[in-house]
Design brief:
Layout lengths: L25 H29 L6 H11 L3 H14 L4 H18 L3 H14 L10 H10 L3 H11 L17 E5 L2 E4 H9 L3 H7 L2 H23 L6 H25 L6 H10 L5 E4 L2 E5 L6 H27 L13 H7 L5
Antiparallel strand pairs: 1-2, 3-4
Helix pairs in contact: 1-4, 2-3, 3-4, 4-5, 5-6, 6-7, 11-13, 12-13
Length: 354
């Protein structure tokens, strides 16, 4: 007799957590915390803008209602309630300027209504010109115009805000004052072109510092300037990623400049230094043919190598000495015991870095 289908095994019952067992694992709790923190940060940013002066000193149900709308991410509705405060509240000019800026930022950054944002930025600029905020709205006006597709108006507004540099610099070329290109009302002279070429690395400067190549460089320069102007009109100079990268580049350049001043420029080599170093390391400076040593280089023959090797050693020593002095002066302490070979041991030990 044929057997029927085997019965399906009963699904395993989910084990009820004991009183000492957590309902959520660590990963779930982490995600919940991150989500709450992100929402709290967003709300704090909006409240920070309002509380920093925009609605400071204002009380009552209208403000509380507007803040609750921000918490609910109903930015258009929140802006409307702040507008009511502007129209009906007894505010001085500074409070009106601050509150207008709050409304404008809500429309631009949260609701992305650039026309309404532009309206309130212009309100701050023209109705409250004595406010300390009047200078802050300039780049935001340009950004709104650009995002509304009004590039020409954005360009004119930016030119009106920016004081053009009248000092074009000196140039040895007789045609230095000749205008070779224009971007709107801005003139680019032959001297400007030479000045930009001189900023290039040596190998590129030699390439473009030729009459036939300068036109090619000018075209590249104009393209970069046009894109840069567009980026400025979009207020990208305040983009967090750009600000952070600019800071990192600036920090690296400052460190490099310090090392040049404190280390590289401080290392001086004399002929006697080179001679002593050569005598102590003769085995490094040999003549080779087909990978085999065939003779010893003289001091004169090895001079360039000697200078490079000795300078490198001296600079490394000077840099190490400088770092030791700084670490001692700043009371630097390293807790190397917190970095065991097995990272899991750190968790098992319950050690926390201070």
């Amino acid at each position: 007799m044929a057997e029927g289908p085997a019965p399906r095994p009963a699904p395993p019952r989910r084990k009820k957590p004991s009183s000492g067992e957590p309902l959520f694992d660590g990963r779930t709790i982490l995600f919940l915390c991150v989500g709450v923190a992100m929402f709290a940060t967003l709300a704090a940013m909006i409240h920070g803008r309002a509380g920093a002066g925009g609605t400071a000193g204002l009380t009552g149900p209208t403000r509380e209602y507007a803040n609750s709308l921000v918490d609910a991410q109903l930015y258009d509705a929140a802006a409307v309630e702040y507008e009511r405060l502007l129209e009906g509240g007894r505010l001085d000019d500074n409070q009106r300027a601050n509150l207008s800026l709050v409304v404008a930022d809500l429309y631009k950054d949260e609701a992305h209504d650039y026309a309404k944002a532009l309206q309130y930025y212009l309100r701050v600029k023209h109705l409250y010109p004595k406010s300390k905020l009047a200078d802050q709205v300039g780049p935001k006006i340009v950004e709104c115009l650009e995002r509304l597709g009004r590039s020409l108006d954005a360009k004119l507004e930016l030119e009106a805000q920016t004081k053009l540099d009248s000092d074009k610099g000196a140039s040895g070329a007789p045609e230095g004052k000749a205008v070779v290109a224009r971007i709107g009302k801005r003139e680019i002279t032959y001297a400007d072109l030479d000045k930009e070429i001189k900023k290039l690395p040596d190998y590129l400067r030699e390439q473009f510092d030729q009459p036939g190549k300068k036109v090619e460089f000018l075209q590249q320069y104009l393209a970069t300037e046009l894109l840069y102007d567009k980026a400025k009109r979009l207020n990208l100079e305040t983009d967090p990623e750009i600000v952070e990268n600019a800071f990192q580049v600036k920090r690296s350049m400052m460190v490099q400049k310090l090392l040049d001043q404190e280390v590289r420029n401080a290392v001086k080599l004399t002929p006697e230094d080179l001679k002593l170093y050569y005598e102590a390391h003769k085995d490094r400076y040999t003549k080779k043919e087909n990978g085999k040593v065939v003779g010893q280089k003289t001091l004169v023959e090895a001079k360039d190598e000697l200078e490079g090797d000795l300078r490198r050693e001296r600079e490394q020593g000077a840099q190490q000495k400088l770092l030791q002095q700084l670490m001692q002066a700043e009371n630097v302490q390293l807790y190397t015991d917190l970095f065991p070979a097995d990272a899991s041991k750190l968790h098992d030990r319950g050690v926390k870095a201070k």
